[in-house]
Amino acid sequence: MNEDQKIDKRIHPDFYYGLVLLIIGGGLLLHTGSDRYDFDLLFGDVSTVFFPRIILILWILLSAILIANGLRGRGPQQGHQGVMAVGLTGLFSVLAMIIASALAVWLTGLLLGGAASMIAVGAAFGYRRWVILIPVSVVLPVIVYFALGHVAKISVPSGVLWN
Hints:
Elements: H1 13-31, H2 50-71, H3 88-124, H4 130-151
């Protein structure tokens, strides 16, 4: 039998990625049922873990889709090396950006640090449409700040430098 005619019986790496994400998401979802989250209800009938539960349920559903695609052998046909195809320098640069973004948000708050982080990450990944990148990077943290800070009454980082 020719090499090209053999059927590849290996499971696609997406199955394993989805399985790990499913386990993590399921564990976090179970953790939201803990007694630690018994606070006063927001708006009289919504618990403080309502939104995180919605996000975690979506996380679990997307993980299940990833698992199903991995079992069927579907997925990207190129780049089967997965994460390591990026190289260690790419991985460490992403890690450095995450740490720098967290520090920027912690020091200057969500409004300034979030906007600066989004612009820096967009530029680092090669997005050069500044007419779109800058307004979105400024407007999105403002929307998140008011949606979480004022509507949902969740404390958002205001920055160590401003306190």
